[in-house]
Design a protein that fits this description.
Largest sheet: 6 strands, parallel
Shape: elongated
Radius of gyration: 26 Å
Strand content: 5-15%
CATH architecture of the largest domain: 3-Layer(aba) Sandwich
Number of helices: 13
Strand order of the largest sheet: 2-1-3-4-5-11
Length: 360
């Protein structure tokens, strides 16, 4: 089975001054250094400075050194947005994430930033787990002439899709693997990951497995994880009990509250699978407060494995996703599309891995 615990390790593959008069600035108001200042000190024309900034290779090496020295001397900052307007494209990549408070996205951001290097700038926006929020961020980025988009969502408003298609910018979706991405997709199957973890718990002998996820409204990832959980139960002849399937708002505290509510209301539960955000960490902490023994009284499994889950007491059984590699490959696909004539649509499955630990 693609992306299963058995082959998880092998599956990690393939950003003019105005006139004087009313409203004009005082004469003694400081102004930033201008291109003409750089040109004067370097002894070249402003056009030569512009060419050197745009493409250093076309400028004589000695001239380039004088321009660079003049830039440092006067503290000139090139107006890259103005440059992008004339070129119809900037050197800025826009990345949109569901939340900037969630630490699980840090590795993906780092992978993108490391791959883009110094040649491209990265702008990051927060959609607030809302398709309308993502649409607004896409519109803002496209108005800035970004050269590429990285979207965690794979579900979008019709207008968002239309704007991206009409802009013609390269786009990589990273939150889930889908058969027909807008352009390209890199990541893992949320459905397969949840299926594999549920099947793992069944294989360990747990009979009543509860499920807690983030709200599925506007969150295709959470919806797919629920689907995977349900399908695994069905495959093994287990009844699907809607009363032990819950949604929780993000965060440690909310995960703990949802877990406690589920366990107290259903005494027959012997395991709970919490998927998304840090819900499972909250559940482990809440179990400690309640005096529940893990896994003897109730087993806990999570997802989005990280260093915290690895060092809890007890350590948390979880699903590890290669988030840094997702960022790195997504950025690489963008750069290939921007800097070459590549047009192929790419869907890259980097898989996942079940980390078996003490909690289940």
């Amino acid at each position: 089975m693609p992306g299963s615990a058995q082959n998880g390790g092998d599956n990690w593959r393939r950003k003019g001054a105005g006139s004087k008069g009313a409203g004009s600035a005082p004469r003694n108001q400081p102004r930033g250094a201008r291109m003409s200042d750089v040109a004067k000190i370097a002894g070249v024309s402003a056009m030569t400075v512009s060419r050197a900034l745009r493409d250093p290779k076309i400028v004589n090496l000695e001239t380039l050194k004088r321009i660079q020295s003049a830039i440092e001397k006067v503290g000139y900052l090139p107006n890259r947005i103005a440059t992008s307007l004339s070129l119809r494209r900037s050197n800025v990549v826009g990345q949109i994430l569901p939340s900037l408070r969630d630490s699980l996205f840090v590795d993906t951001i780092q992978g993108v930033a490391d791959t883009l290097g110094n040649s491209y700038n990265l702008l990051i926006a927060d959609s607030g787990y809302s398709l309308e929020g993502e649409e607004a961020a896409i519109e803002a980025f496209l108005s800035q002439k970004v050269c590429g988009l990285l979207l965690h969502n794979t579900d979008h408003t019709p207008r968002a899709r239309r704007m991206i298609k009409e802009a013609g910018v390269p786009c990589v979706e990273t939150g889930n693997l889908i058969k027909q991405p807008i352009d390209m997709a890199v990541g893992f199957s949320n459905y397969e990951a949840a299926f594999a973890m549920t099947e793992y718990l069944i294989g360990k002998g747990y009979r009543r497995i509860g499920f807690i996820s983030l709200p599925i409204k506007d969150n295709e990832r959470a919806a797919k994880r629920r689907e995977g959980y349900v399908r695994a139960l069905q495959k093994h002849g287990r009844a699907v009990d809607k009363s032990i399937i819950m949604e929780s708002q993000p965060g440690l505290r909310n995960g703990g509250l949802a877990f406690a509510h589920l366990v107290k209301s259903r005494k027959d539960l012997d395991a709970v699978f919490l998927t998304g955000d840090v819900l499972a960490v909250g559940a482990v902490l809440e179990a400690g407060r309640q005096g529940w023994r893990i896994p003897k009284d109730v087993a806990i499994a999570g997802s989005d494995d990280n260093e915290l889950q690895e060092n809890l007491l007890p350590t948390l059984t979880s699903i590890r996703f290669p988030r840094y590699e997702i960022g790195r490959h997504a950025a690489r696909l963008l750069l290939d599309r921007i800097e070459t004539d590549a047009t192929d649509s790419v869907i890259m499955d980097l898989g996942f891995k079940i980390m078996e630990r003490q909690s289940a």
